[in-house]
Every structure is written in structure tokens, then in C-alpha cells.
Write a structure and sequence with these properties.
The complex is a heterodimer of chains A (92) and B (342). Chain A is an alpha/beta fold and 92 residues long. In chain A, 25% of the residues lie in helices and 23% in strands. The relative contact order of chain A is 0.26. In chain B, a hairpin with a 2-residue loop joins strand 1 and strand 2. Chain B has a four-stranded mixed beta sheet with strand order 8-5-9-16. In chain B, strands 10-15-11-14 form a four-stranded mixed beta sheet. The longest helix of chain B has 17 residues. Classes of the chains: A alpha/beta (92), B alpha+beta (342).
Chain lengths: 92, 342
Amino acid sequence: MIRIVSPEGSTGPPPVGLAPALGDLAGRRIAVLDNGKPNARLLMTAIAERIATDTGAEVAVVTAKATAATPAEPEILQQLLAADVVVTGSAD
Amino acid sequence: MLGTPAHEDGVESFEIADESPETLRALLEERRWADGLPVVAPTEERVGAMLAAHDADADTVLGVVPPRDGVATLRAVAANAVMAGCPDDVLPVVAAAVRALTQPEVNLRGVQATTHPVAALVIVHGEAARTLGFNAGTGCFGPGTWANATVGRAVRFVLMHIGGARPGDGDASTQGQPAKYTYCIAEQQDDVPWPAFDRSRGVEAPSAVTIFCGEGPHNFHDMESEEPVRLLTKAASVMTTLGSNNACISQGEFFVVLCPEHAATIASHGWSREDVQTFLFEQARLPRGTLRGAFDNALLPMTEEAANIRVVIAGGAGKHSCVIPSWGMTRSVTMPLAEVGA
């Protein structure tokens, strides 16, 4: 028998996880984070508005990252604090 | 499961029956390790010997590699270097490349995860390029040199294993590209007309490493020019590729890798590296209507400043040079090569 060293190594502390799902969206505030992919704002705002109509929530924030290739800037994340739910993550 | 995982002092290892090609292949496929080609088994003895050759502290952290956010300790990096077939003495080059890749300006999370076929090019400068046997000459981007091939492959293994960028799972590259197997050259130092590239970036160490996240090399061929303008107009022609990310991301760099004969022709007319950068910045332009779909045809540069056009000399005899477009939202990094010992 021989012993192989894992080439993966360890991972650091896990990133902050997702918040628990909200059971009832009535009266909740929805944010749209446009991640910079084509038509992301159009698509995700339409989804957010549909959710708001169906549940009694409101679309409170629509904002965007500078580009799809970089993380959201701190000031953008700060804007999202005004919401309870965020719709984001459109791909090519 | 073929390999029996075990953890001792926080180090994960696997026990397997032997290191025959068949056993190793089964383990690699089960763990989704490596690039589809045979590897050297990273046994505890081999990894330990590589670290011992440098009196290195195995727990030294070189960086954190996204998207998995794996911790690139020297032990884990050495395991990848052994797997890739690296000789023990190139470990500091792999380590320097990992340090460079994990600098914030590289935006490695984006590089790793994008649908673009971006690959990490490693360029070795200075004494280490000579003493460790890197190829800066004929066929330097191609096969046949142990140091180039294995260091580039080790860096890819670090990105795949520690960083978790496997095709379709962490690495979303639509088509991938051959440079994702290995992508490492050395800078030519013999009979070159300009200061070394690392010196031009203010790095004064005896040896250094540059990393750049871009496409594969795009050749340009010029047999006949005896002066810089026509020769570099061909380079500019390659740079004005409408489908490259440089066409839509103004901060993107270009690496222009000149063969020694082209560099000599250019320099024989008194042109410096900076003159080449300035010329290409002025020449590599497309009409606004072509680039942006606007209604006027003012010429726009392919990058926002001449300094984004990085000029390196590499290659052997002949008259072929290349342009390497960028992924775009990333910056190249040149770092001194440091010994990895404690």
C-alpha cells in the first residue's frame, strides 16, 4: 500500500451561507441585483414584479454591479440591506 | 471507493494498493483529479522530498484559490507539482506563480469561473530561467521542455484541485482551450535589445515570475520587413480582433511576445520597448461604429493606455511572433522569485 497526499488541500472558513427562506413574502421588500449579464435587469425585474404581485411584497431596490466579472461593490451590497429578499444570478 | 481517505494533523491523504497506471487512473477518475493525462503519484515520500529539498515549511500559506477557496499551502502545491511531473527544484517557480495568481488584481474568481477560454500564462525571468532549464528559445510555447511543461501543468493542477475549477464545475469555459493543459515560457535573455521585462516593471530581483490570464498565442508572421512600422502593423492587425474581450473591455492588457529577430529589426531603428507600446496603441484601433455599434467612425484604441501593451521577447530563430489577448477584467502580475524555505 502507498499513501497519496491530496492535491486539494483544505478549504478555509466557509463563506457566509444563505439566509433562511422567508415563509410569507407579504409586506416584504424585494431587491434586484443586476449582475451585468445581458438582459439581466429586464428579466430579473420582471420576476421580482411578478413575485410582488403574487405575494403582496414590493420591489424596493433595483441596482447593478459594475460588471459581471467582479464581485458586487460594498456600496451596492449596502443598498441591498434595505431589502428582505434579493433576486440575482443571471447567466449568459 | 478506491482510495481510503485519512486525515492526520489536518492533512488529507489516500491509501491505494500501488501506483500502477491502472490504479492511478482509477483514483484520478474517481476523485476527478488531473487533466486526463497520466500523472506521477504524489506519494508522501515524493511530496516530502520536494519540500525537504527547499527546507520548506509545508504549512506555509501562499494564497487562497477560488472558487473553492482552497488554501494553497506549500504541501498542497507540492503535491500538485509532483503530480504534474515537476522536478523538485522548480517548486519556488510554481509557488511564485500561485502567489501572483492570488493577488486581488488578478480577479482569479472571475478567471476561474468564466465561460471565456482564459488560461494562466507563466513567464519566468532571470537566473532561474537559465539554472532550472526553462526554454526561452525555439518552440518555447510548445512541447519538449520539462520545466516549461511541468510548471505550467502544476499551476493548472493548483487551479483545478485547490481552486476547484474543473470543467463544468467551477470552470464554466464554453470550449476550454489547449493552454489550459500547460502554459509556461521563459523570457529570452540572449542578445536582446531591451532591458528584461521584469526590470521594466520595477522588479529588481535576480529571478521573477509573471502571470497573465489571457487567450492562447495568436501568431503573426513577417519575413520581409526591415523596419518597425510594417512589422508592427501586422501585430496591430492581430490585436484588432473584434471578437476578443479586449474589444469590449478597455482596461484589458495585451501581451505581445516578439521573437528575437523581430525585436532586433525593431530595435535596429532605435525603437525602445516604450516606442513599440506607443506605436501599437496608436495603430491598433477600430472604428467606433465597428467596436460599439455607434454611428460615427472615429478610431478607438483597443486598450485604454499604451502601458497595457506588454512587450516580452521569447522564441528562437525565425520570424514568428504572437499577440496574447486578455480575458479583460484581470491584471498581469510580476513578482520576485523567492526561495520557499523557512
